[in-house]
Design brief:
Blueprint: H1 9-76, H2 83-93, H3 95-98, E1 105-111, H4 116-125, E2 142-149, H5 167-179, E3 183-184, E4 201-209, H6 218-224, E5 225-234, H7 235-243, E6 250-259, E7 274-278, E8 300-306, E9 309-317, H8 327-352, H9 355-382, E10 387-392, H10 402-408, H11 412-415, H12 426-430, H13 433-444, E11 446-454, E12 460-471, E13 477-486, H14 488-506, E14 510-515, E15 520-523, H15 525-531, H16 535-538, H17 553-566, E16 568-576, E17 582-593, E18 599-608, H18 610-624, H19 634-651, E19 654-663, H20 665-672, H21 674-690, E20 697-702, E21 705-713, H22 716-730, E22 734-735, E23 741-742, E24 745-753, H23 760-776, E25 782-784
Parallel strand pairs: 24-25
Antiparallel strand pairs: 1-2, 1-5, 3-4, 4-5, 6-7, 6-9, 8-9, 10-13, 11-12, 12-13, 14-15, 14-18, 16-17, 17-18, 19-21, 19-24, 20-21, 22-23
Helix pairs in contact: 1-8, 8-9, 20-21
Length: 791
Amino acid sequence: MPRRLGPAPGRRYWLMLLPLVVSVMALAFTDFNLRRQEAEVLAAEFDTYAEKLHERLRERIHTHDEILRGAAGFFMASNRVTRQEWHSYVSALGLEEGYVGIQGLGFAQRIPPQRLRGHVESVQAEGFPGYEVTPLGARADYSAIVYLEPFHGRNLRAFGYDMMSEPVRREAMLRARDAADIAYSGRVKLKQESTVDVQAGVLAYLPVYRHGLKPRSVAQRRADLLGWVYAPFRMRDMVTTVLQGDLQMVRVRLIDQGGAGSDDPGGEVSAGDALLFDSHEGLAASLAQAPSQTLRGLAVSLPLQVGGRIWRVQFEPLASYPLSDRRVYRGLAMVGVALTGVMLCALTWVLLFTRERANAMAHGLAATISEGEERFRLMVEGVKDYAILMLDDRGMVMTWNAGAARIKGWQAEEIIGQHFGRFYTEKDREAGVPEQALATALITGQYREEGWRVRKNGTVFRASVLITAMRDAQGHVKGFAKVTRDITAHHEQEERLRLAATVFRSTQEGVAITDADGRVLVVNPAFERVTEYTEAEVKRRKLSLLASGRHDRDFFQNLWRDITEFGSWQGEIWNRRKGGEIYPGWLTISAVRDEGGQIVNFVGVFTDITRIAHAETQMEHLAHHDALTDLPNRLLLHSRLAHTLERAHRTERICAVMFLDLDRFKAVNDQYGHEAGDELLKAAAQRLRLHLRENDTVARLGGDEFVIVLEDLASVEGAEVVARAIIERLQQPFHLPGGQDALIGCSVGISVFPDDGQDGETLVRHADAALYKAKEAGRGTWRLYRGGRVG
């Protein structure tokens, strides 16, 4: 019986299955490791992203602290800060436009119990008859919010509130007082809140001490405390403004973990911690964007120290969080493993069958592998949207595809054999970025970044780069696979969108965007400020709710005809605010059309011109009145004197011009300073106004010189009576704001129409000459011109 060569048929088939099983296990093992590496890279990327958001929150808190320190410095630099000075200071900061989330900036005064009644009466005397320190009742110590800007809307509810009466606020205020530094409170409900859009609130306090100095000891600080400058924050408004569009991709929770000296500062969240902000708060579970399985393990929790407290910021990615797509590279690796498995199976087949069959199959397998490699090479070279190239272990370019030629500009023969660092900017090369990229890929397996790269023609472009280290079976590095994508257009589009969003939010003109039916889609903060409507109140509604009723049907028919025919309309229009006030505005409406020419949106931009009209009226007033005393100036004096002389000519009545000069004014000005001198001039002007008739005119020419025009006199003696009364009145003491008493007087020169002149210029010149004679006579008296014979 002949001897059988080779394995039995059954055993042969079992030996053929062995390489297949090994290949499947290798594929599974490779897939497991690649997915694990992807998870590590994604975790590192999300950690970096969360740290950037955390840093933006920390910078905003630091900005708030600097605002508080500036406000405290304003108090310490002044002996006394008035309500108007505080209003001007806070208005200059622009809190409403640039610091959304800060409800205001205020000052809470400390009030000992024995001074409570005097404090209330003092504030009531300022024009607030209903003012009280609330809540009412006896306490060991009081505080009261006396200044709070902007002083309107929600903030009016906090006026007079004693924050020391509430435990959470009191703890922060006392901590700030003893530490002489900024202290933040725990979660509170702000007094400014109503029943609509209630948010968690936090208050920051900074103490103000007497004499503008920081006492050394705690006892001195308690004794010298005047009050606190403070700022209330609506947490949802503040965090949403800082993080903006990032909240569409990440869920953010802000939790107050108590004081920096707590048992577990900055540790894990406990049941006693207070939730300050949750970007998904109030969102139904069915509407929340559940993260994918890949994203669920990427949560990050970071501590944030603010004014003696620890806040913990938690970041969780949402389904919309952009993941880096690594499936192409994983697929390439899996294809490589699969090809190796195919080769192993083919080798087994060769060993199991006859040499002839083995040779035939070997040729077929070689052709298959060669064809696969050729297809892979053609596929890589034909890709035009990605620059795919292979590097050796030193970073020298070994392969160059069509995408690399299109993106970078070099042809293969120009670049193969050169170091890939030439694609980097000179600054990056000097900083060693190419070498750092290869080192990172060696350590972690991959290196990913976005940065600027250089084309052959010297221009730069924004690139997304992935470098993967390739190793042999022994783990030795064979080289690197580098994939580059040109993302310049995407980067520029994102930048344009960011700038457009910033302009939309920060412009002072109200902007509303509607659909083709005129229903509101979105409005900006200036729209809300001018109309007093929030975006939620006008969304999906037509803007006819702003109609004032001043324009008829023809006005609106012409308006829409211009928009339909010419694409836009602009002009003055009267609108009505939510509170009922009617105001003028300058409106521009533009139609937005799609590629087919159909109107898809309308954009309205309007400006409230109420303040412009008020400013014109104010400028007209300033042009004709003295800036210090608000009396008519020289220009208005001559106008009124001309009208007075015209009436006197017509009615044949007597009128007089009195030239008045203050005696001893220069001595007061030199002794007490220019500010005291200005206050004295204003007080003198007030006395002059009070002792003249309504149809008489008193004007300031400059310095301490005044001119009075008396109309419709029965005789010259009437002018003398007025002069005597003015002299007596101005000889009474003046009480200056600094507590000083000033004694002055005046001398008066009088000219009379028609005896002393027929025109205003002549009468004023003759009155001045009479004043000169009055001063020669010893001051404190008057003289008449008497047709050239002063006496």
